[in-house]
What we know:
26% helix, globular, 8 strands, 4 helices, Maf protein, alpha+beta
Amino acid sequence: MLAENTAASAPASIELELLPDFDSLPTFEENAATFAENAAGKALHYSRLNEGLIFADDSGLVVPALGDAPGVHSARYAGADAPNSRCIEKLLREMQGKTGQARSAHFVCAIALVRAGRALAVVTDRVDGELLESPRGAGGFGYDPLFYFPALKRTFAEVSAEEKNQHSHRGKAFRKLLAALSSML
């Protein structure tokens, strides 16, 4: 949830807040075919339950050589409650024998901004990289230990949080969202 703070002589600032009592709200089933549809669906769902500006995101890993899998199923690629390690194991099995361009992958993030059941903006961005044959690094989450980012010559699990925020799909999409929001205020 976003809260707008403005003063007559100061530029607008934005304060992020979690939705109150989020755990008690009815959940939204993410079953759309695209990241943008899932993000918009979540934001629209929760905007009907709360006032103010609401944003929600959906993101994941896309591997063209696997028919764009895991895609929108990234978090549940190895099953609904499977830990990240099982998702990584499944992806590594499916990537066995693939070399060169077949190991290219990208992360995608879509963020939807909604107020009172009406979509105001949907932004997306991506970051391109390649999948390693084994995990590297202790940071990050999800597929970060496999995702090698050539510009930094490290996996997303090996970079600092600041570096990841500067280059990641989520960081880039969020900056687009802030730009769209600032043009609305």
